[in-house]
Amino acid sequence: MAASIFAAVPRSPPVAVFKLTADFREDSDSRKVNLGVGAYRTDEGQPWVLPVVKKVEQMIANDNSLNHEYLPILGLPEFRANASRIALGDDSPAIKENRVGSVQCLGGTGALRIGADFLRRWYNGNNNTATPVYVSTPTWENHNSVFMDAGFKDIRTYHYWDAAKRGLDLQGLLSDMEKAPEFSIFILHACAHNPTGTDPTPDQWKQIAAVMKRRSLFPFFDSAYQGFASGSLDKDAWAVRYFVSEGFELFCAQSFSKNFGLYNERVGNLTVVGKDADNVQRVLSQMEKIVRTTWSNPPSQGARIVATTLASPQLFDEWKGNVKTMADRVLLMRSELRSRLEALGTPGTWNHITEQIGMFSFTGLNPKQVEYMVKEKHIYLMASGRINMCGLTTKNLDYVAKSIHEAVTKIQ
Length: 412
Description:
Elements lengths: L15 H11 L6 E2 L16 H11 L15 H12 L4 H4 L3 E7 H16 L10 E5 L3 H9 L5 E5 L1 E2 L4 E2 L1 H10 L5 E5 L12 H13 L3 E6 L9 H4 L1 H8 L4 E6 L1 H4 L6 E7 L3 H16 L8 H11 L1 H32 L7 H4 L4 E3 L4 H11 L1 E2 L5 E3 L8 H14 L2
Parallel strand pairs: 1-12, 3-4, 3-7, 7-8, 8-9
Antiparallel strand pairs: 2-10, 5-6, 9-10, 11-13
Helix pairs in contact: 2-13, 2-14, 3-13, 5-6, 5-12, 7-8, 8-10, 13-14, 14-17, 16-17
């Protein structure tokens, strides 16, 4: 028999976070804890379907006027409009001036990819494979892959995490922006930076915006955790709204996986802010062509859930309450973990646990300490030391804290 035409295809390594989850599932140890995958869990360690989502799903099921016809290529209009509205604010000057457009996408990843594909084709001219794209050090690993697969050849990094002080390296970040070629593209985390959980303050964002404006750098925001980070939609959107108020043209990739708990519905939106309505419409016309050859038409169920919720004042208020429930539990787990580590006298400082925000915390554990946690304690976390705070519960907090204490004490 002839050899397969695919015989030369190498086996790709598994995606780290999903491999971690698979290893967790196969572990039979009763003490095991999964602090890896980025999904919300209740204090019982279970997935949570938001009550408002259950209510809206029932409303959709009982609405006999709905059908399964194709949506427009750019997506459900009421979803797109409301998604952009919560990103930019009800009083956004850009919305009032009709220079905002949007594309319903397959999750935040799909929004990043459509934006990347457009920028590679049309940003500052056309066929911009050589335009530098900057991602933070560290960043969500998919940022590199999305822009690389879209055709960009020059993916660079900018300073972000200061390991020594376990916080933001603002001077390094600003210096990298000063040195970047004009019109470079910068991927910015709107809030709850993944994986560090460390965000710039409003004053620091103002410094960042000032350099980016002077250097003609393009901001591409990734907003995966609006509302989920602090419990406030407005607070978590502050950076995006400030950049808009400063006159930037920008993209903002939005995900509703976390703040609606719609992980498997792949509900995303790409908000486009331009100089004027004509520019935005021309951009959307090209994005429509890209979507047509990528997924052709987006799915409706998740978008309808989000659109229905955001369009109703009563449901919107209920959703904000659900989101605050999730955010508050994460904040409580941060406080409890820090207090336990400090009570144990764990070497080092642990204030960064409560100073960070959102789903993830960059613990500061090194790879050998992480290996100890996984192999000896059956606590699964990323090699970078990133943990998902939602994996902590009142039942496992003591065990996790004592295990961290052991890892830091025994292994340097």
